[in-house]
Structure to design on (140 residues):
């Protein structure tokens, strides 16, 4: 006879809807000097064959600076997504959505390049990136 293996109750961990495909134009939400960014790659994304990668809130991405200071333009940098327009569901059942897509430039260690973050930031980012949360003015 087979017996049941203790499975327990799974904790509901929501999958944040990824609303930013590769090539998307996003705003820079910090005071590092960059204004507009283009998404190049998503770290850790494993998708289907011949499909574009997508990024969501809290993801680490490679971006290219489209508009901003001359010394930052046309460089490939790392950034963390802090806002997205596509609605996503939180564990308590509420749906969240922002007015724009925005990211914060970070150094390879996860330290933000700017000293302040303009606009609100999603609460989900604070769990993954506490150093980015330290410069946030508003967390929702």
């Amino acid at each position: 006879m087979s017996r049941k293996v203790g499975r327990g109750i799974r904790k509901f961990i929501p999958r944040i809807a990824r609303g930013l495909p590769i090539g998307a134009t996003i705003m820079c939400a910090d005071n590092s000097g960059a204004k507009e960014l283009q998404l190049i790659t998503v770290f850790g994304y494993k998708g289907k064959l011949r499909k574009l990668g997508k990024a969501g809130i809290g993801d680490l991405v490679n971006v290219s600076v489209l508009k901003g200071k001359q010394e930052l333009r046309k460089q490939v940098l790392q950034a963390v997504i802090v806002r997205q327009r596509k609605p996503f569901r939180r564990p308590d059942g509420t749906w969240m959505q922002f007015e724009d897509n925005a990211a914060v430039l970070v150094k390879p260690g996860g330290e933000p390049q700017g000293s302040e973050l303009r606009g609100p930031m999603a609460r989900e980012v604070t769990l993954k990136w506490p150093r980015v949360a330290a410069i946030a003015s508003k967390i929702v």
User: Anything to note?
Assistant: The chain has a mean pLDDT of 91.
